[in-house]
Every structure is written in C-alpha cells, then in structure tokens.
Amino acid sequence: MGNRVAREDFEWVYTDQPHASRRQEILAKYPEIKSLMKPDPNLIWIITMMVLTQLVAFYLVKDLDWKWVIFWAYAFGSCINHSVTLAIHEVSHNSAFGHYRAMWNRWFGIFANLPIGVPYSVSFKRYHMDHHRYLGGDGIDVDIPTDFEGWFFCTTFRKFIWVVLQPLFYAFRPLFINPKPISYLEIINTVIQVTFDIIIYYVLGIKSLVYMLAASLLGLGLHPISGHFIAEHYMFLKGHETYSYYGPLNLLTFNVGYHNEHHDFPNIPGKSLPLVRKIAAEYYDNLPHYNSWIKVLYDFVTDDTISPYSRMKRHPKGKVVLE
C-alpha cells in the first residue's frame, strides 16, 4: 500500500556533527550559559510523583473490564510512561543529582523505571551517551535504524507498522548494531524490575500488569508524544541532522523537543533549555523546527521521500571510546 520510497541507503556524510562546534561558538559569545550547567533537583520530586501516580493507577484498574484497562492504558498510562522514559533520559545525563553523585542518578533511574515494566534505565544510559558522542556513527549510534528497517519499511503501510512497533525496534536494535557485555547494574536493574512486576501481578492481578506493559507499548508506539523519535534526527530537509520542536508537549516531556539545544548542551537540564534558546536566539531561531509531533508522524508515514533510511550517517573518526 502506497508508493515505494525511492531512497535505498542512508545519507552518508563526511563532516563532523554540528553540535560541538556550535557549542564552542555559543559559549565563547555567551559564557553565562555555563551557569545553567547544574542539576535540577525538582526532577526528584516530579519523577517520584509520576511513579506514585502510576502505582495508584495500577490499583484503580485492577477490577475494570478489559476494554477499560486498555482504554486507560492508552488515554492516561501511555502519557505517564512515555514521560517517565524521558525523565530517565534526564537522569541519564545526571540531571537529578549532578555529576558528582553519578551513582545516585543510576539508582534513581532504576526507581523511575518501575512503572515502565521492562528494565530500561541502565542500558539506555550506556547507549545514549554513545549517541551524543558519535551522532550518526556507523555501528555505534543505535538511534539509527538497521539496514533491514530501511529496506523493508518503505511504503506508507509498512512505515505505519514501523511507527506502531517503534518500542520493539528500539529495544532490540542495539543487539544487532552495537551489542555490549551485560553490566552488573543492568543485572540489578533487571532483577529489581522483574521482582516489581511479580509483586504487581500477585498483589493487584493480571489487569494491573497488562495495564503497565500496554501503557509502555502504546505510549512509545502510535502516540502523539512518539513523534519526537522521528522529529529529532530524521532528515526531512537535506543537510539538516537535528531538529527542535517548540510545541506544547514539551510540558510533558522535560523539554526534549528542544533537541538542537540539548545536543549542543547535554549537561543542561531540560528545564533550562528554553533559556539557552532565548540567550543564543540567533543560533536557533533560523534552524528548521517543528510545532506539531502529530504532523511529523503523519508526514513520515505519507511522504514517499521519507523512510527509516532518512538519517545522516558517518564513519567514526579517530579512537572510539564507548560508554
């Protein structure tokens, strides 16, 4: 169904990613931005409240009919769980407790992981740092789809299925692109998460467990917030690798939409990224950006010039140091 996308490979580039040089230029002109490089302690309370909110939801859905379990998983739980994954993104940058208490952030990330249902936090940290250091790096950046995804999901219908199944591709893609030895923290993350899931099942029942897992699967798939997966780095305009989003869903996503700003200054918490844009407006206002993640999803599925191949890719230079 739909025309086949003509693109048959990624957009290979032979220049460095733009963020390091722009960061140096902005800091030279606006050194006051360095004052924003500090943790955001409000994350601790916000994340704790989100976890507690989902615990209450687990209790409230335990006796509902199945149709209402799935309805609330999509209408409510999906928003919370997707927001929690982006809270974990903040914590992966040590934004909760700061760099001097890095392990506190790892343990807090494992706590934030609980309502998602699948162990995620520790592994995400390991791969996400590589994404920042080696943006688009062949065989390193697991945010880049596999060749199979680019080859197979090449029509309107197949791209729609790809959007629906995004959480599964993000989960399994690292095993094919950049497999890493399992760390002790990943084992701890898994043991704690599985134990939590078992407790939910035995205390509240199967409906609460299904609500939790469905909220994650649905919230990270065909969902308005999931537009950020595609909006951040898919090349809708030739030559532009990273795009920001300045719409209202930033309120639910810790300003992850400010993505050029985030890649330029990954040590600045999401709360302060709008200030980065305000201070250095001439660097950001003229870059292509979005105001609707829903439109991004629609355009990705229907535009026969865009596919999972629409990513800029580069061969790493020099010595590669992985997280």
Report on this model:
This protein has 323 residues and is an all-alpha fold. It has one domain (11-313). Helices cover 55% and strands 2% of the residues. It has helices spanning 19-29, 42-61, 66-92, 102-113, 121-133, 147-152, 156-164, 166-177, 184-204, 206-219, 227-231, 259-264, 273-279, 281-284, 293-302, and strands spanning 11-12, 244-245, 289-290, 312-313. Helix 2 runs antiparallel to helix 3 (66-92).
Question: What's the short story on this structure?
Answer:
This is Sphingolipid delta(4)-desaturase DES1. Interacts with RLBP1; the interaction increases synthesis of chromophore-precursors by DEGS1. By secondary structure, this protein is mostly helical.
